[in-house]
Amino acid sequence: MKGKRKRQLRRYVIPEVSLTPLIDTALTLLIIFMIAAPMMHNGIKVALPHGESKEGAPQQEYVVTANKDGKVFFNNYPVEAGALVKTVRATLGDKTEESIFLRADEDVACGKMITILDELKCAGFKQVVFSMKSKGNLKKL
Fold it and tell me: Which conformational region is residue 75 in: left (phi greater than 0), alpha (psi within -120 to 50 degrees), or beta?
């Protein structure tokens, strides 16, 4: 009897790692990030006025933004009143041929935008352009 016990084969349980929960978790996180990534837009929110332009817009590099609170930003960084030209000069140097785009909320007073435009033009910047939304398929009267 004693010898018979030794001859019995013992069954060992081989531990295995189940990859299914790991893959499910990874795919769930991937889907969450794919949905959330487009919502993570950094910048100043402004409601641009509508307009129509026949020219294609060149690549936007330098942007002056005015929000409806009257605050001015250069490339998404706040600029103190009267320091806009110094900030733009510090970034562009002597490159007066570069395009500078003006974005303003539609509720910003025209006088504020004309002041910004005048400051940049007097500083020697030749390509100052207003940004606007395209009218799209609006009916013409």
Answer: left
State how many domains the chain has: 1
In a domain, 36, yes or no: no
Look at residue 62 and tell me if it is in a domain.
yes
CA atoms within 13 A on the CB side of 114: 3
CB neighbour class for 115 (10 Å; exposed up to 12, middle 13-18, buried from 19):
middle
103 assigned to some structural domain: yes
Residue 104: CB atoms within 10 A of its CB come to 24
pLDDT digits (tens, 9 = 90+) for 11-52: 777 888 889 999 999 999 999 999 988 877 667 777 777 766
